Structure formats: C-alpha cells, structure tokens
Amino acid sequence: MRALFNWPQFLVPLKCGDEFDEDAEHTTAQATVSSRLPSKGPKSGREAEFEELCSRLFERLPRVDIQEFKRFVASIDSSVNSSQRWTQVFAYTDFASLPMHALILALAATVEEKQLPSRRVFAERCRLSLRSRGIADAVLRHRSNHSQGRSEADEYIRAAHMVACLEQPVATEGYLDAAVQFEKMDDVRSALACVYRNARHRLRAGKLAELDADIKTFDVGSAGVDTMLAVLTATAPAKSKLPSRKRLFRRIKAELKSRGELDKGLLDGLN
Length: 271
Prior knowledge:
elongated, mainly alpha, about 60% helix, about 0% strand
C-alpha cells in the first residue's frame, strides 16, 4: 500500500491551534524551505499566471503558509510530468496532516487538471472533510451567478481564505468578510466562530489598533443579525480602547432599525 502523502518536503505544516510568533515562524520556514529547494530559473507561463492569481487574495493569510504552498506548486508544475505528480498528490494526500485551507488551495492551483479522476475524488474528500468539521461545504461550490466575475480558481482561493479564518492560530485579515459570507451560506456556526476566534487572537496579542481597524471597516449593510451581534459581543471587553466601536454600535442599530429587525432588548448591554 502506498504511504499517505503529506507534502512534508514542500510544505511546512501549520501549528494549528497553538499560539506562535508569526515573524519568527516566517523566518524559520523560509530558511528551511530555501535549504531544500534549488534556485529556480525563469517562471513558466503557468507558474507566473498562478502566482499573479493568488497574489490578489494570498496576502490575507499569514505569510509562512502561503510562501511554502507556492513553492510546493512550483516544484510540481516545473516537473517533467506535472499531471502525474498531481495525481499522486490527489490520490495519497493525508488529510489529517495538513490544514484544510491548504488542501483547497491545491484545487485552486489545479483548475487546468480538472479532467484528472483523482482530482475529482480529492475535491469530494475536501467537501466531506469540511462537513466533518462542521463547516458548510457550500464554500466549494463554484456558482457563476454569484461569482461577480471571479474565475473558478478565484472561487477556490476565496474559499481557502474563509476556511483559514477558522483554522489559523493568529488573526487572519478579512475575517469579518468571511464571517458575513458564512452567514449568507446559512452556516451561522462558522460565521460566529470566525468572529470570536479572530477577535480573541487580536485581543490576546494586544493588537487593539488592528481590531479597531477591523470594526471600522466592517460592512454592516451586508451582514446578518448574528454576525452583527457577534462583533459587538466579541469586542465588548475592550470597548473603552476601541475608538470606532461607539460608531459601530450606532451603525448597527440604524441598520437593524431600517430592516425592521431591531427587536426590543436586542442590543441591551452591547453599547
């Protein structure tokens, strides 16, 4: 029987669930991978296209994870038979050894390989794994009528970002947007987890300025009631240190009133 493939020679596994120093981890990971891989020549057309594609959303994720993944993709795409290598990855990846968002990024990187039977099985395994974790597998559905001009690869990258907001041991940029999207998919559990986990990471790290910036730019108009209340609840412990929170409360109250959803007592204790 073939051993399960966990990408160890290409991807530095993320310490999911543990707090760590992101800058130190980034430096260590870069040094580790640089020592493993030979220097590369000019980028292939496909590699350059993928790098340009992922650059639009990859900055939302912690750097350590992204850089290693891009090297992983480049190492396969530059091989003599990349389709055969991807087939091995799809067939033998150990889902227990890697963060879920990295697995979804593999789908984003291989849209051109969608004809491979092993990729279709891999995509289904991703859906089943999401369900087992209580995350809506709707994040993996490419819906052209809702994609706003995004390609299928863009949709996968967007899904990877949403899932990363639930997995990363540090706050992930854009987590409030991800929470809103989860709620629109009727996955309120993931929406709330997205808000509470990332706000907690901000608070524990003492990054109050970043948390204030998060709520300052929070799109109240597109958010549902559950996400709004979660943001107010999660930021309540530090409300005296968040200049934007009073205005956020007023915006939420006005939005709920305009929708006819401002039930009596709904916002009590959250101002």
